[in-house]
Design a protein that fits this description.
By secondary structure, the chain is of the alpha/beta class. The chain is built from 13 helices and 14 strands. Helix 8 links the parallel strand 8 and strand 9.
């Protein structure tokens, strides 16, 4: 497990000499179902990190016990499992909520029970307004819109089309993009939607292509929908610059869409996708390369953004427990809120009483797909 020393080093620092009881962490992850391409690497990451941490001595000599359920992407199941984690399993914190819908279900239970919860989903509603016990690791959908519009403005685009999924993530990001687009001098001249179960979006894309003056197209969404949109976009030979959201920032998107169709697609992503391209003095490089090496050695599959969200949630929780010297939920919550300058795979986290995300736009890297691979635009 030498490959994850950069990750585990933080977990053994700042501990008190007082022994802690077995530390029970809960998780509700969508390891199967429509969001499995997100949840499966999240579940594997948590299992790997718990095994490595315990092999290295745990926290203050006490093992971490992970109690994890597969909610299949169903918000009702997520609520049931969150209740079970709190009432039956007596966990001191919860990681999960692969999707926005499952996260909203879990946070309602966690807040009532005053148990720290770290979401792995993107919607800004999860942490805005700030809720006492709820945090999250991915950038918000509003931040993704802002990063994309910054790039569009730099390219001189002033009129765009948008095609959004009607799922929780897509609808939220569509709304957030609309709320900030005017700040960048950009007008949305075509605004289409699709159901995540749709198998063809050519009708909507044709309307966007025919919109007067459209210069670029943005697709807020996650799951298989954006891959279908990307294939249809190529089939229609629209030829305009095409942007996706951070909701599809994984090699799985390229595989589903096809490298030829995905060629030239731009999106805001994390350092994890371009680990080998990071500068040697990049503060995230040690943790990114350590996690990438460990995950790929353990699973035999490429590392991805979404497993990275789980990595960061586990790092934030265990670092907080280490600094608090306590596994009491309130002490963990306070320690998370006091986290400063903690480098993860997604960015460098600094939380506060008014910021339960802990990231700014600098955590995003603008990426472009070239030759079936992720490349840095900046």
């Amino acid at each position: 497990m030498k490959t994850i020393l950069a990750t585990t080093a933080l977990l053994t620092m700042g501990l008190s000499s007082a022994a802690l009881a077995e530390i029970r962490l809960g998780a509700s992850i969508s390891a199967t179902g429509p969001a499995a391409f997100l949840g499966d690497p999240e579940a594997k990451t948590l299992e790997m990190l718990v095994e490595a941490l315990n092999a290295a001595g745990g926290i203050n000599g006490e093992d971490v016990k992970l109690v994890m359920y597969d909610d299949g992407g169903d918000p009702n199941k997520a609520r049931t499992f969150a209740t079970r984690l709190v009432e039956d399993d007596e966990v001191v914190a919860i990681i999960g909520g692969t999707s926005t819908g499952t996260s909203m279900s879990i946070l309602a239970i966690a807040e009532d029970a005053e148990i720290p919860f770290i979401s792995l989903a993107g919607a800004i509603d999860i942490i805005d307004p700030v809720k006492p016990y709820t945090f999250k690791t991915p950038h918000t959908d509003r931040m993704a819109c802002q990063k994309i519009f910054e790039d569009m403005k730099a390219q001189g685009y002033t009129k765009i089309g948008m095609i959004s999924g009607t799922d929780g993530f897509g609808a939220s990001m569509q709304a957030q993009c609309k709320s900030v687009v005017a700040d960048y001098g950009i007008e949305i001249v075509a605004d289409e939607t699709y159901d995540p179960k749709d198998a063809d979006m050519t009708a909507q894309l044709t309307k966007i292509r025919n919109a007067p003056g459209v210069q670029a197209v943005l697709n807020p969404g996650f799951g298989q929908g954006p891959s279908i949109v990307t294939r249809n976009y190529k089939q229609l030979d629209i030829g305009l610059p095409f942007y996706q959201s951070h909701g599809v920032a994984s090699d799985g998107f390229i595989q589903l869409a096809g490298a030829e169709a995905a060629e030239g697609v731009r999106l805001p992503g994390t350092a994890l996708l371009v680990a080998d391209l990071l500068a040697e003095d990049d503060v995230q490089k040690p943790v990114v390369t350590a996690y990438k090496a460990a995950f790929e050695a353990k699973t035999g599959t490429p590392v991805g953004t979404f497993g990275g969200y789980a990595h960061d949630a586990f790092l934030i929780l265990t670092d907080a427990i280490a600094r608090a010297g306590s596994s009491e939920p309130a002490a963990i919550r306070d320690a998370i809120e006091a986290t400063s300058g903690l480098a993860g795979t997604t960015g460098v986290y600094t939380f506060s009483s008014t910021d339960h995300l802990g990231l700014d736009l600098s955590a995003f890297r603008m990426l472009e797909i070239r030759g079936g691979k992720w490349t840095l635009v900046e």
